Amino acid sequence: MGTGKTAVGKELSAMLEMQLIDIDAEIERSQKMTINDIFKNYGESRFREIESETIKRFSDEKNLIISTGGGAVLKSVNMDNMRKNGTIFCLNASPQAILERTKTSQDRPLLKVADPLARIRELLDYRRPFYEEAGIMIETEGKTPRQIAEEIAEIIKCKK
Hints:
- The chain is mostly helical and 160 residues long.
- Helices cover 60% and strands 10% of the residues.
- The strands form two sheets. It has a two-stranded parallel sheet with strand order 1-2. The chain has a two-stranded parallel sheet with strand order 3-4.
- The two termini are 29 Å apart.
């Protein structure tokens, strides 16, 4: 969270003329409730089940950019599904940068704690091995969404 997935996804979508699918937005649309409400009413485990179902639904399609939340990497089935038709990129930022980017948002259920910076560090420490194994790591700090999208587009071009 807070690494620029949405902004970079929009830039990349325009550059490559591909449809962008935001998994969290799709979940909210299909469930007719916000991610916050899903967490509050059903818990994180139910959210992760819905997330996996949604990723699977879109992973069979081609020529899509799929943007997931940072916790999607925790389930190997999600990574397996996304690898079927594409390359996985993990956007990276420091805990301080993530806090700065997310501090005004009320849409971050995992950061609704007394010390959000400590929570960000905890999440990153736990998830880092999953991120590193999942795909190509892209550093986002000091770069515009356009620059990051161009970097990703170049990597995709070289893989073809």
